[in-house]
Amino acid sequence: MNTSRSSRVWAVCTAASGGAIREPKPSRENAAAARFNFGNLGFWFPWSVVLLVAAAALFTYIALLLVLAVCLLSEGQRLYLHWSHKIGILVTLSFSISATAVLSDLWSKEWTTLLLSFQVTAPYLHLGGVSLMTLLSWPIALHFFRMNKRERQVVILSLYLAVLFTLYLVPLGMYSPCIQDEGTLGPAPILIGHRGAPMLAPENTQLSFERAVEAGGEGLETDVTISYDGIPFLMHDTTLRRTTNVHEMFPNRTDAPAAMFTWSELEILNAGSWFLQKDPFGTASFLDVHEKVQIQNQTIPTLKELLNLAAQHGSLVIFDLRRPPRGHPYRDTWISRTLEVIHNESSINSSQVLWLPADQRSLVQELDPDLQQTSGDHGTLAELQEEHIVRLNLHYSHMSQEQIRKYASVNISTNLYVISQPWLYSLAWCTGAHSVTTNALHILRKLQRPLFLMTPEHYSLMWSLTDIVSAFLIAAVFIFHWWRERGLPFWSGSRQVNENGPYSKFRTEASEVQGIRWNPLFFDGPSLSLDPDLSLHSLVTSGPSPAPAFEENLTTRQPHRTCPPSQKSRPSDTDLYGKEMWTDHSVREIFILSFPHELYTDMMLRRVQRLMPSRS
């Protein structure tokens, strides 16, 4: 193509439009998130790692408290939460609310990532959730049958069954593109290196793009800025501070726009040392000495160098083109200058270039119809066809199997960015994406099939069997506890023996649970035996009185504790032998349990009351 002609056409069209070209407007999310990136902080801070570690620690702590509470209730123990644990729960709750608010304000799109993850993990989460509810059936059934108040029984059983049946029915409403008929899975999406291979070499350097090609990348993605003297070069940030040593070479221009430097100033900057110093992906330690030397010597590459590398290997190229700031000589001709490099200064074929800039797209299409017009916005089919769009470049949050198929029906392919996790790549594969932009070429290239892929028949069989087995086990657990609490024998000819005496009720901070109360008929001291046929008169007037034996046990036997000995026991109605806790009601309850005959009960009650110290 004649470059002088294209330049003249471009100049005429630009003048006719009055030089009015759209300025890219940062989104609210990007503007908010920018306050926390390197460009504003001035240093690397792994905030995501800190957040994940804090969340994992706090929720592990809460989970341990929950498990401990279930175990204590299963053993009939009282629950008293220490003040330190109350503070810990309050801190966890505050952290959860604050983190949710911050994430929702700065990175609201990431909630879409969470929802997408359920399309891969939901089958396994369902299996884990049902298994957990099945395990919880043991303490819940024990608690249920030992409660005295029917209202509380209804509440606890209703809540448990509501959660359980919700989990049972979740698969009916679940959707995952990776659950599909056998033989319908399409080819794996081709991989486009995001700024090269930034996990293996410094981003937007010649070495990074070479590593991307070696790792099997079929495309290269980058960001293009035009220098003050008109040389398009590769730089993502608006300044040079993060990825170069500009603070050493030009200390007074550290925060100056990268486009305001001349190429002679840019080419002397080091663009690789920061990678070894900051290690943004934690991969620097795996590099050998030769690779580290190569990285130390990296400089800023030009667009021409990238295009020639892509032409040599037959790779696709896609780039964001940044408009120079006001006062820049190429502010109004930056697109024509970029086209000039593509057409005259490089050996690449125009069909290998995915043209992403939306400004003056119709003019670019007229000047070079071989460029693959690529849009970052998904519009109607009519609008896309009118602009000659052949490829969409969308964030993975817009992943939709229906939309991708609709665009493919009119020969518009879809590229999703930035996908670096195997599970997300698997989801894009199942959805039908044609290509993905990634930081992890060397990892995703190893996947031979999606991590999760199942036919609808196999999945239905899996969750149905899971629910049936769970329901059977839960029913068996409830029947077992009901049978045991009734005191019925477990087999013919067996005799149910209660070694610890009858169950009685103790109080927790949350509910009333059946515990074990000592029975005077089972204490270890001198035995107290009464003949059921003994008359009241003979009991009073003849033979040694059983009162001394019982009195001895009342005064010498240590109180029964429902808490471990190391734990300080607080007075309650379960401390049966604490003198301050003796009441007529509690004493009468003992003898009702021990002496079923009412006359015996009244007589022994009066005798014990005489032995009791008066309450202050």
UniProtKB/TrEMBL annotation:
<dbReference type="GO" id="GO:0006629">
    <property type="term" value="P:lipid metabolic process"/>
</dbReference>
<keyword id="KW-0378">Hydrolase</keyword>
<feature type="transmembrane region" description="Helical">
    <location>
        <begin position="465"/>
        <end position="483"/>
    </location>
</feature>
<keyword id="KW-0472">Membrane</keyword>
<comment type="similarity">
    <text>Belongs to the glycerophosphoryl diester phosphodiesterase family.</text>
</comment>
<feature type="domain" description="GP-PDE">
    <location>
        <begin position="189"/>
        <end position="448"/>
    </location>
</feature>
<feature type="transmembrane region" description="Helical">
    <location>
        <begin position="46"/>
        <end position="73"/>
    </location>
</feature>
<dbReference type="GO" id="GO:0008889">
    <property type="term" value="F:glycerophosphodiester phosphodiesterase activity"/>
</dbReference>
<protein>
    <submittedName>
        <fullName>Glycerophosphodiester phosphodiesterase domain-containing protein 5</fullName>
    </submittedName>
</protein>
<feature type="transmembrane region" description="Helical">
    <location>
        <begin position="154"/>
        <end position="175"/>
    </location>
</feature>
<feature type="transmembrane region" description="Helical">
    <location>
        <begin position="124"/>
        <end position="142"/>
    </location>
</feature>
<dbReference type="InterPro" id="IPR030395">
    <property type="entry name" value="GP_PDE_dom"/>
</dbReference>
<feature type="region of interest" description="Disordered">
    <location>
        <begin position="547"/>
        <end position="576"/>
    </location>
</feature>
<keyword id="KW-0325">Glycoprotein</keyword>
<keyword id="KW-1133">Transmembrane helix</keyword>
<dbReference type="Pfam" id="PF03009">
    <property type="entry name" value="GDPD"/>
</dbReference>
<feature type="transmembrane region" description="Helical">
    <location>
        <begin position="85"/>
        <end position="104"/>
    </location>
</feature>
<dbReference type="InterPro" id="IPR017946">
    <property type="entry name" value="PLC-like_Pdiesterase_TIM-brl"/>
</dbReference>
<dbReference type="GO" id="GO:0016020">
    <property type="term" value="C:membrane"/>
</dbReference>
<keyword id="KW-0812">Transmembrane</keyword>
